């Protein structure tokens, strides 16, 4: 069978679902209401931003939430709210988006990049334990691809060493670990509303936490150093304008009502694809960490046999109408981080993932489960070619 990249007929010619989906009627109504009110900024007296923050806090099982401009700034604000700053170290996983580390740099601290579990690709408790020093102040587990990290052992380790835990929940809206929602499992949790995420306003972020004093500091960091209830031009501490707008919040607040249905849809597609892949022995689904009770399925990560030419696979799959993503390079390979003083521990599992793991993106996961057959068929077709980059 001739591959599409060599002039053959592609497996799929119909488009995948678009992301983000069109706004629903509730979003349109709330956006129109905010537009007509003229209260577009978060500091003008509108209530949608505060309603969104409160709703996310409740959903995360904690009392406090603060909306902000994006999740990178949210991680930065959460770290400052927990007292992390100059001279401190924050442990982050090697297989994650660069913002997990750059938020640490933004806070004036040093990212310590450690390895991930070789099976599930989440932050390794053993690697964290080996990297703790007298300067370590926090751990940042990442709920990768919408799968919650194994939080209990990480929290136990943090408690033994007196460390803060900041959850990077940017990809994990609605996910649960042992029936407890992410975001509220550590000292603070941060969500993203960037365009690719499960809820989006184009950009945006939100911090949740359980401690009132932490909440007050985070709120001040995001509101130019003001104190809640204080004078408008009173700035008792240093802060920045990191606020979300009312218009963005109007897109996000109604989304909470349909989030669970969308998670169910993605999980149905992933289950169907896992069944289909039983007939493609060169490919396996990266398993979820132990303790995951609800996976939001921001991505589905697939691991290829080590002999597969991944660059050719990605090009050939795109030609078949089934585009896949190469995923993350290990953070420790990024000169931008090491030049700023990031400490890099040995990360063989992350390096292996960068060679063998590919992603099925969220938009594809929103299709009907029957469409999973197209992904499996295209993989089988391309892999049967043995990675041959030349036409037959």
UniProtKB/TrEMBL annotation:
Stretches the record annotates as Disordered: 1-24
One Pfam match: DegT_DnrJ_EryC1
Cofactor: pyridoxal 5'-phosphate
CDD domains cross-referenced by the UniProt entry: AHBA_syn
Record InterPro entries: DegT/StrS_aminotransferase (IPR000653), PyrdxlP-dep_Trfase (IPR015424), PyrdxlP-dep_Trfase_major (IPR015421), PyrdxlP-dep_Trfase_small (IPR015422)
Superkingdom of this protein's organism: Bacteria
Keywords, comma-separated and alphabetical: Pyridoxal phosphate
Transmembrane in keyword set: no
Family per record: Belongs to the DegT/DnrJ/EryC1 family.
Protein's recorded name: 3-amino-5-hydroxybenzoate synthase
């Amino acid at each position: 069978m001739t591959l599409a990249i060599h002039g053959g007929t592609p497996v799929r010619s119909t488009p995948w679902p678009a992301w983000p989906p069109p706004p629903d009627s509730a979003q349109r109504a709330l956006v129109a209401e905010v537009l007509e009110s003229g209260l577009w900024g978060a500091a003008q007296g509108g209530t949608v931003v505060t309603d969104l923050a409160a709703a996310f806090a409740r959903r995360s099982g904690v009392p406090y939430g603060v909306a902000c401009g994006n999740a990178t700034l949210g991680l930065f604000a959460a770290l400052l709210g927990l007292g992390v700053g100059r001279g401190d170290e924050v442990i982050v996983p090697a297989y994650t988006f660069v913002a997990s580390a750059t938020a640490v740099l933004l806070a004036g601290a040093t990212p310590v990049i450690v390895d991930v579990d070789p099976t599930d690709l989440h932050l390794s408790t053993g690697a964290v334990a080996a990297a703790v020093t007298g300067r370590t102040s926090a751990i940042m587990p990442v709920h990768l691809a919408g799968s919650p990290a194994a939080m209990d052992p990480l929290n136990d380790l943090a408690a033994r060493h007196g460390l803060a835990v900041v959850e990077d929940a940017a990809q994990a809206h609605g996910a649960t670990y042992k029936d407890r929602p992410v975001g509220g499992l550590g000292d603070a949790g941060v969500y993203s509303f960037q365009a690719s995420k499960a809820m989006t306003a184009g950009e945006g972020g939100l911090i949740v936490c359980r401690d009132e004093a932490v909440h007050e500091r985070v709120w001040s960091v995001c509101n130019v150093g003001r104190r809640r209830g204080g004078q408008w031009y009173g700035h008792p501490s240093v802060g920045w304008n990191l606020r979300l707008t009312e218009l963005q919040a109007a897109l996000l607040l109604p989304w909470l009502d349909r989030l669970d249905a969308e998670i169910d849809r993605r999980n149905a597609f992933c289950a169907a694809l896992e069944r289909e892949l039983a007939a493609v022995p060169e490919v396996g689904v990266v398993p979820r960490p132990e303790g995951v009770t609800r996976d939001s399925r921001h991505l589905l990560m697939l691991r290829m046999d080590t002999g597969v030419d991944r660059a050719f696979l990605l090009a050939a799959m795109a030609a078949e109408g089934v585009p896949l993503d190469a995923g993350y390079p290990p953070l420790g390979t990024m000169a931008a981080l090491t030049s700023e003083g990031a400490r890099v521990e040995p990360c063989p599992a992350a390096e292996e993932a960068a060679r063998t793991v590919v992603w099925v993106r969220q938009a594809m996961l929103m299709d009907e489960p029957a469409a999973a057959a197209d992904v499996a068929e295209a993989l089988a077709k391309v892999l049967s070619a043995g990675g041959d980059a030349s036409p037959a």
